[in-house]
Amino acid sequence: MEKQTDMNSRTLYEQVYDDIGIGISWISENVDLLKRLLGCVRHGDVKTMRTLTGINPGSLEAQFATNPMRHTRNLVIGLLYMLGITAMESGAPSALCVRIMESYAQRTEQAETTGQLYAIADEAKLEFCRQSERYRMPGINDYRIRDAIIYIDEHISEKICIRDAAEKVGLSEAYFSRFFHEATGKTVTEYIQFAKIRQAKELLAYTDETLAEIANYLAFSSQNYFQKIFKKVEGCTPGDYRKMHRHRAF
After folding, report:
1. pTM to 2 decimals?
2. Domain tally, the chain
């Protein structure tokens, strides 16, 4: 009987490194497909990725577990790791990618058939593509604006001052504010709110954190202010958003 894994005490990385040969062997035997999958994630190419769903990776000669389900599960976990790392390299926040990887890894532990495992893999392919697409910055060519956006995203859980972002890229606050608006179509304050709400949406969809905990994590002055800004940006309350999108993670 297959040993059950306690996902609360073992992280995705521990699982992957318990079966260290998974990624190497799968790459060697499925290199062309993997190049296409990872290329789609790297470029946020959701359209092409859709054509690569429903593809069974097939049976490998090497077995990574005596139990066939464990063997397939290990392959899917290896794929999750590679997709997640590629999304991080494309600009998606590391903490978000790890959260998504662990969410899908937990679902692989609950799967009862190989068909369910392949369906989970297909969902993950598209999800990491969407995240890469979301966090890429097409059309923003000036390195100072790109650096400012990266700075904001990396300090999303802090109270972000326009002055600090301007100093980070070597511009005066007044010039930076005008320059940022011209380049992005948003004021710096609007972008900071947008970035915080974008992160809040992921927390609502992928975690059980309360609204108060999310507001505190994202450095909003209060839960009420967080809810006000969320509705302003998204057109719905955080609670309604969680109800509509909860199925994406669980």
Report:
1. 0.57
2. 2
